[in-house]
Amino acid sequence: xxxxxxxxxxxxxxxxxxxxxxxxxxxxxxxxxxxxxxxxxxxxxxxxxxxxxxxxxxxxxxxxxxxxxxxxxxxxxxxxxxxxxxxxxxxxxxxxxxxxxxxxxxxxxxxxxxxxxxxxxxxxxxxxxxxxxxxxxxxxxxxxxxxxxxxxxxxxxxxxxxxxxxxxxxxxxxxxxxxxxxxxx
Length: 185
What we know:
Layout: H1 2-12, H2 22-60, H3 70-102, H4 109-137, H5 151-184
Helix pairs in contact: 2-3, 2-5, 4-5
């Protein structure tokens, strides 16, 4: 009976049976937007968590000096680098796609993404420069045959890098929160 009423309403409104009703279309759009918001929130959570895990992996690198046996040090190093590579890869790919998604519709995408790449390159350059300065400050001058750095240089460099990653996780979380607020308005 309800289907007959809907069919009569479609015929009266000259709407074809395969076209959705306005109410159905609005409900479909609303549920689609909610699903998009949920997906954005989940992907944002994975971005922040993978960045934090990456920072922890970098923080663990200087702990390799605590291993006396080279074989166990190598196995631990390989494990840390696999965790670092996986978490960095997840964070990098999520960052790229989420950056693209949260841009407002009226923005010049080419300029925005170009600015994104330039900021990334600036961060890489400055980070490498500062890390190099930290290592050079801890140069072991007692060994003249080869360039050797004291362990604290690696500790400083890894702590600095880890802090930068945690800071970027905080910035990403804030940006996603702002994007979610702007879509709610």
